[in-house]
Design goal:
443 residues; alpha+beta; Protein Transport Mog1p, Chain A; 7-stranded antiparallel β-sheet; 4-stranded antiparallel β-sheet; 15 helices; 42% helix; 24% strand; globular
Length: 443
Amino acid sequence: MLETAQDDAQAGAEASRQVEAMIGFVQDPRLRQYLQSLGEKLVRFAPAQPFEYRFQVVDQWSPNAFALPGGQIFVSRGLLALTNSEDELACVLGHEITHAAERHAASQQAFSQQLSPFSLALPRQAIVAKYARDQERAADTGGQRICSAAGYDPRALSSFLESLGGIDRLQMGVSRIPTFLDSHPGTPERIATTAAFASTLPPPGPRDPVRAREAYLARLEGLLLGADPSEGVILGSRFVHPDLGFSVTFPEGWRVVNTASAVVARSPRRDARFALEPAGPGSDPRAVAEPYLAQRVQEWRAVLDFQGAEATPCCAAYVVRGSVESTQGVIAGQLAWVVLAGRVYRLSAAFVPTASEKYAERARQMVQSFRPLTDEERAGIRVNRLHLARARAGESLASFSARTGNVYDAQPTALANGLAPGTRLSAGQLLKIGVQKTYEPQK
């Protein structure tokens, strides 16, 4: 229960640790310090609260921003890549600061509890949704007030919402994933409303907008675009981890998903699930496996058919095979612990007993496929990074992209720079582009 600001701070700190574990933070001290400094500048004009605000860049490619109770504010690197001025970023932060300062999470919790428990589900959800939308409108105006008071242009919220709206119309090289707009509805009406409200606020003082934009964009130079290979890369049915230096192959045609805690592959018929997850440091797979099995075998009511060491082309492994009882019935499977470079990995396979013959062999093949990554394979992993380039007079976005080695075509380049796709560029105009580089594992 969030009854006080102190409760907010405690809940937010705990949730922040979960965000770090599940998503991760961008490890760039320069960028982190800049975001914290900008946030602190804005907080001075927010409603006073006793908690300390903290601002972090989460390692997420989808454009996103959110506030946890107690002043924990997050923006994704995907959102940073979409911004074109410090004013836009300040408006986003101001919006989230308002959520935290006005304790919207606590008030929404209290409001929901005030509703009759006998309310029908759909009407109740509609009432809560309307209340949340009202809070979003309040966060818009509150954030714009904060930005204006801090010397930023409150109209920048509208321009950013327009760019963000383009994400739904254009997938920037990735499948559709949740964005800031999913929790912060962005409609033409909302864009118009924020623009109208901005006109009632004092404008920013005189300044050179071109120079201000270029100074801001310089802070984004080198930002990683797209998925982060430090969390591993899915190449068809194969998963490679350049930082940890291994490769493992799952059955062809299976859907492979890289989650925060494990790499999971599911069969097309959904009657089998294979996974890889870290099991801790060590050099002896049996020493890691036995404590795990001692705890789980009885808990799972497992029947073991095989338990012992197995040879693989590269690594020491310890394998158990058998079956366990579950609420869905008996499940057959295999667990294997494999050692590589002082780390132990657990590879699991679970499948319906009627398909044991087919999937048991594939589970063995998965373990046998686990191996070190070669230098050539690691060097072949490429990433896109944000780079700045200047245009020539009259260039189209297509010709500009071809000349500068931009990996994105005209439409996403226009979106990232707040331009229309058919724009003719001016001499010296600075634009964000994506440049492909060899991935360098983190030390």
